[in-house]
């Protein structure tokens, strides 16, 4: 079972469900996969970043495979997306909010775990970002799309900020539940502002104004 404080654990589980839902929606809309493919892609989106982090940390078996709540929620999100895909467009805003919650929790928890394993600040930040966006990148690769995190929207940037704040608070000796929630909230707010105002990371001058590909979320 997870050793995270209950508030962070709740955010982590909610984000796992949202990532499973969002990943499965991509499988339905972009790839037209069958029910097995939809659930597998949803679970990979939800669990992939954490699995990659734990493999790199040599923390095996990965935490998300040792706690039944994670893979159950990921599979449930995929199954719901498959069954209700025609109607979920009405819930796009709540799904995006839950997705941002997951992004924030994954970035903070991933960076914190990397520090617990003795990594230096920079690698810990990178692993925090990997935890947050790795599953979505695997998803897009499997359906033969340029990973959306590399091409559109403020997605990796909020995760980077959240992970960096986590590392900073640990290194300055003020890390605790309030600091972790503050780092997650900062990540969440940046992501939501990006969605609200359609903000993107800077592009090369010759490609500015190019239409962004649709973002499936991570």
From TrEMBL:
Domain Glycine transporter: 10-85, 97-169
Keyword Transmembrane helix: yes
Superkingdom, natural source: Bacteria
Record flagged with keyword Transmembrane helix: yes
Membrane topology annotation: Multi-pass membrane protein
Transmembrane segments: 6-28, 35-56, 68-85, 97-115, 121-138, 150-168, 174-193
Xref: InterPro entries: Gly_transporter
Keywords, sorted A to Z: Cell membrane, Membrane, Transmembrane, Transmembrane helix
Name this protein carries in UniProt: Trimeric intracellular cation channel family protein
Species, as recorded: Streptomyces reniochalinae
């Amino acid at each position: 079972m997870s050793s995270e404080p209950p508030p962070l654990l709740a955010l982590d589980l909610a984000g796992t469900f949202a990532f499973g839902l969002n990943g499965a929606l991509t499988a339905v809309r972009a790839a037209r996969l069958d029910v097995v493919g939809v659930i597998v892609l949803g679970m990979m989106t939800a669990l992939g970043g954490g699995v990659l982090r734990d493999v790199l940390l040599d923390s095996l078996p990965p935490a998300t495979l040792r706690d039944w709540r994670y893979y159950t929620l990921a599979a449930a999100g995929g199954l719901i997306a498959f069954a209700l895909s025609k109607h979920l467009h009405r819930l796009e805003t709540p799904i995006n909010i839950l997705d941002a919650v997951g992004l924030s929790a994954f970035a903070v928890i991933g960076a914190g775990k990397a520090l617990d394993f003795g990594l230096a600040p920079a690698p810990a930040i990178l692993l925090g970002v990997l935890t947050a966006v790795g599953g979505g990148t695997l998803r897009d690769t499997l359906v033969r799309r340029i990973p959306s995190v590399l091409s559109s929207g403020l997605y990796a940037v909020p995760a980077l900020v959240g992970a960096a704040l986590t590392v900073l608070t640990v290194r300055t000796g003020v890390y605790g539940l309030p600091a972790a929630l503050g780092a997650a909230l900062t990540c969440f707010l940046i992501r939501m502002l990006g969605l609200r105002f359609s903000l993107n990371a800077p592009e090369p001058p010759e490609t500015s104004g190019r239409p962004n590909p649709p973002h499936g979320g991570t």
